[in-house]
């Protein structure tokens, strides 16, 4: 993409309304624009990041055997009356009447709708296990939306729902999502630690939150430093096999948010030199809730003995739009965002430090063409801004690799390759840069 | 994908509520489920088709130089008061009040919001031309939703918006979208004919509808048969070049829907043997509306002489979810859907005609693995249904290529390759099938 043809409205001033760094940087980097309280438009740069995160989530759900579908944003109020949550949900639910005065709502989550779909078609234990997910916009009418996409009202969530014949099978489904989440967040360059959690309005008795460690996080977190170095399962993890050793490994080391922190146990179990106290951001939560919805909504299947039993369910959420903010909270410095490569809007930026000069133009065009031809996501800053402004913009929007092309270096056959994560720089020939980035 | 692990709730009975063939077939093939009047959940099979259509639309928008972003589903009522459309829009607009009694609406289209985004950032003609698009769920509260996804209430639309300094430049933007639409629909295996159209509530004085020819279409269509054989621009079309010859070629041959049909001209200009009268379905519409929104909403940029002028705009819609129905209306027979390959949920189905027999199981597993390894989208029917039911299901859901693996053929080293579009069959070795489908 040529920057001269892109839409990247970078702000020079720090926006006053932004209280936290991710909100500030997303506005400054031209990633999004507020359209109403807690409701945002994703501008092209932000949209690219959102899509990359969504795709990683999708790939890991698919790998774990979940099936993607797509439920609508609007739901019938009557569906939520079946579970009893229509009245229970309170003012965070956006309630709507259509032209015929039928009561609708903008879905904040989909346990009821997916249970309705399930019970319409599935009649036998032979169709289980089944895990259905979608990635769809949700709405929660927060009393006081703030912190940008970290606590918005219209937000993008991946929510998966598992259906099993009994608790043992349901726990295997739960474990599959547990492992999928470990992989999902690790692929985004995040340390996300599973922590035992309260179940809240979803219900049930087993739940884990996945918490990204970030000093600017919303809640205090206590853990044993060993949990930071546990191995994340590889691509070859066998989701049909026994996952309990992985779950045991991850849940036996102390890690808790302040809500459930047990100071005595922390002192007793964790040696002083391994005590970590930091802050964290919730980016996912998984629940096993048993027969809560299947009892209320009569989602029954015939078991091997022919007798109908209510299915055992779980639900599994990832805050897709929230992750954009969470990654920035975990990956930034004073100059701007430092995107992990897997979610960067562009992997490489080419900065033409003397736009209009024959040699730099030719070298940049050649690199741009060669990198693009090899499938590298590259942003070519071909604007007539001065070099300093180009450096600042590339750092602000956080492109992992920056190729600085100036007349002095070119005279010696070199360009400069800068790595955003640590600021390291190397002088290399264009051919070597290409080999490095397109391998 | 193994069918035993997929979620494909095929209906044996014809659903009574479905009045048209695409609605009937989408329900029977387990592609979707109605959740409220005109509001559907996309089940896994339907979701796969929706995504393939969306991706073709995206690729052709990108190729034409449009930039993708994503606006929210909910909008502020005040934004629509600026253009005067809040009151004008009538009962089809879904109006919502949030917990603080602020007036919102579920966007039926986005001219106002994109103009608000544009005017916030763009100040100079130097940033033009600019074309921004998104693919997002919309809502129109139809008085009587029907015909499944063909006239739903919650529907997926691609809408692009162009911004130019004057009418001449705006017409160039219009022409780029015109050509992109020709390519988009052709890639989906559709004959979509651009026809001059009324502008309706969007406004302006120049508009074309893109009409898919289908005998079951919603409106009568009159055209010269020459328009059916015009060449569609290739991948290498130069969007920076002069597109007027292509536009002239496509607009000089008679083609009109009944709304604007001129019977006298049709008789005068079209020789009898070239007169075509059939039916059609609108799948896209493009508009040039000049300064309608920029005047009302003060979207001004400084021209080369430093004087602020209102920008000239256009908007360009594709009915992404409607296309799923439109393609079925154009591509089906009594046995079910006949998907064009580019949008098929799976390109290939393997039917194991004797599940559990050592030889057929082994041959199917090998084909399944080899096709999957080569990146072919394949559905392996590994269920214990009888052969007849497998044939019927594969035809109903419309998989373009079906590999029938039975014990008799295998004894001679052959499987049968069936093509859904014309029913043709060939006996081939598994190696030849692989070479044919994975090339």
From TrEMBL, chains A, B:
What reaction gets catalysed by this protein? tRNA(Pro) + L-proline + ATP = L-prolyl-tRNA(Pro) + AMP + diphosphate
For this protein, the Enzyme Commission number is 6.1.1.15
User: A Gene Ontology biological process annotation?
Assistant: prolyl-tRNA aminoacylation
Question: Which of UniProt's keywords are assigned here?
Answer: Aminoacyl-tRNA synthetase, ATP-binding, Cytoplasm, Ligase, Nucleotide-binding, Protein biosynthesis
Question: Could you tell me which PANTHER family the record lists for this protein?
Answer: MITOCHONDRIAL RIBOSOME PROTEIN L39/PROLYL-TRNA LIGASE FAMILY MEMBER, PROLINE--TRNA LIGASE
Function statement: Catalyzes the attachment of proline to tRNA(Pro) in a two-step reaction: proline is first activated by ATP to form Pro-AMP and then transferred to the acceptor end of tRNA(Pro).
Can you name this protein?
A: Proline--tRNA ligase
What organism is this sequence from? Bradyrhizobium canariense
